[in-house]
Structure formats: C-alpha cells, structure tokens
Design a protein that fits this description.
The protein is an alpha/beta fold and 272 residues long. The protein has ten helices and ten strands. The chain has two domains: 182 residues, P-loop containing nucleotide triphosphate hydrolases (Rossmann fold, 3-Layer(aba) Sandwich); 81 residues, no CATH class. The strands form two sheets. The chain has a six-stranded mixed beta sheet with strand order 6-7-8-3-9-10, sandwiched between helices. Strands 2-1-4-5 form a four-stranded antiparallel beta sheet, with helices on one face. The structure holds adenosine-5'-triphosphate.
C-alpha cells in the first residue's frame, strides 16, 4: 500500500501526482436526523484525478458540497495546503481556485454558449460598474482579455461552431461540455465534476473522458469526479474513494478498490 501522506506518490496511470492539497479529516455531516457523512477521511493530491463513487444516497454530492463550502460539516477538519481551512463560503472557494459542475445542467438556456462560458469569468473581473464608467479604456482592455480566455476554452472544447447558439438548443452532451467550459473559464486549480457523463451516449462519454484527461494533462488541473459509470471511473482515475451510507468503505488505486470485498458487496444488489 502506498503512503498516502508522502510528498509525492506513484499513479497507476503514470500521470504526475503532487503533494496533498486538500486533506479531509474525520468529516461528519448531518441534516437533522439524517447522517449524510460519518467520520470520513481522505485526501486529494495535486494533479490527480480522484473519483468518489458509491451507490445512490451514499453521500457523494454532499462530500463535493463540503469541499466547495456549500455545506459545513458539524465535525472534522479540512486542511488546504497544510493549513486548517476556516468556514468557507462558496464564493470564497471559487476565489481559492475551486470550480464545479452540477448533476443537473445549471446553465442559462436562453443565452449563447459564449455568454454562458463568459459567466465563468465573473469572479476574475476586477472592475465594477463604477470603475467601468470612470475608466472605460481599462475596463475595455479587461473585457478583451476575458474574451480571449473564453475563446481559448471554446477552442479547447471544440465548440467553435456553436459559440453563438443558445445553450437550450444544443444536444444534451454538448450542454454538458458547455458547463465544463464555464468551469474552465474560471481557470480552476481544483475542478469538481458531479456526474459529468450522466445521461450521455457512448460517443458523448468518450468525448467527455478525453476532455477531462486533456484538462488534467494540459493544465495540470486536479480533478474530483463523481461518476456512476464504473468503466469510466476505473479507466481515468488515479485514486478512488468509495462511500456507502455516508461511510468510507474503500480508498485506493482503481485495482485495489475493484478487489475490495466491502466495495464488491456494497455494489452487489444495487443497480450499478
Ligand atoms: N440538503 C439536504 N437536506 C437533507 N438531506 C440531505 C440533503 N442533501 C443530502 N441529503 C441526504 O444525505 C444523504 C446523502 O445524499 P447525497 O446526495 O450526498 O448522496 P449521493 O451519493 O450524491 O447520491 P446520488 O448518487 O443519488 O446523487 C441522503 O440520505 C440524502 O437524502
């Protein structure tokens, strides 16, 4: 078994994998009487693709919401780059370089692809409306720089031909890709993807896998992925954490997790 806390670790995929950037220690989260997460500890290393899997209701989305500050656990500690992270609000998470996509597409359906991706730049914009009125030239320069970044994202995701199309008119798979684009426009260092391939056909899944691997490879982005398709998870993850009824039942490289007895029995009798 690899030492999870050493400065660097080998990955089964051979991808680079750096130091621990986020260390979740003994996290427990309750909603009234419902225990969504119980005493969960695991870490996330820089540059890795870290998947969270588990049957329905296992606590996967709750875990993502803890990571990006939407939910505040009643117990446990979160260390970000070695320092204890204080209570974090979602906008602060975004400023710290954490971006996410959602299980259900959360885009402005009537707006173009370009404008939707531009919304991902909002937190990067320095000038407010008053500054824009006073320093029109500077604001215009800033707008141009943001546009360039957005165009880069559009090229990267190969969606140039639909850049002016209202998102609601696009097929589902492309809408998911635009959502990824909006998250990428924020230039995140940690990207949280909540079931990015749900509802996709095989070809759309292959495309999405390729883009996730390319984001990780070309930008060095650390990725936390929730995904139900086990083939995809085992193919692209460096490490996998397995939750069941809000508890951690497995953690390790895809092969370790695949052969873990607890994981096998959690999945027997479920639809996954
Ligand atoms: N805001 C909330 N209020 C009350 N209970 C919640 C809330 N969010 C999650 N839960 C409960 O916490 C548990 C874990 O839910 P969660 O959505 O995190 O699981 P999941 O593994 O993401 O499930 P799925 O695969 O179905 O999306 C469930 O019992 C769920 O009903």
């Amino acid at each position: 078994m690899t030492d999870m806390n050493s400065a660097a670790a080998a990955t089964p995929s051979g991808r680079r994998q750096g130091e621990v950037i986020l260390d979740l220690q003994n996290i427990s989260l309750r909603f009234g009487g419902v225990k969504a997460l119980t005493d969960i500890s695991f870490n996330i290393r820089e540059h890795e693709i870290r998947s969270i899997i588990g049957p329905n209701g296992a606590g996967k989305s709750s875990m993502l919401n803890v990571i990006n500050g939407v939910y505040h656990p009643q117990e446990g500690r979160i260390l970000y780059r070695g320092e204890e992270r204080r209570r974090l609000e979602p906008y602060m998470a975004a400023r710290q370089g954490i971006a996410r996509t959602f299980q259900n597409i959360a885009l402005f359906k009537g707006m173009s692809v370009l404008d939707n991706i531009m919304t991902g730049r909002n937190l990067k914009m320095k000038s407010n409306i008053f500054q824009q009125a006073l320093y029109w030239g500077a604001a215009q320069q800033e707008e141009i720089a943001h546009r360039e970044k957005v165009e880069e994202v559009i090229d990267f995701l190969e969606i140039q031909n639909v850049r002016k199309t209202p998102v609601g008119q696009l097929p589902y798979g492309l809408q998911k890709r635009v959502e990824l684009g909006r998250a990428l426009a924020a230039e995140p260092s940690l990207l949280l993807l909540d079931e990015p391939m749900a509802g996709m056909n095989v070809e759309e899944k292959q495309d999405m896998c390729r883009f996730i691997l390319d984001v990780n490879d070309q930008f060095g982005t650390t990725i936390v992925l929730i995904e139900h398709d086990m083939g995809v998870v085992m193919d692209i993850s460096d490490r996998v954490v397995v939750l069941d009824y809000g508890k951690k039942i497995g953690d390790g490289a895809p092969d370790e997790v695949r052969n873990n007895e607890d994981v096998i029995s959690a999945y027997l009798g479920t639809s996954h």
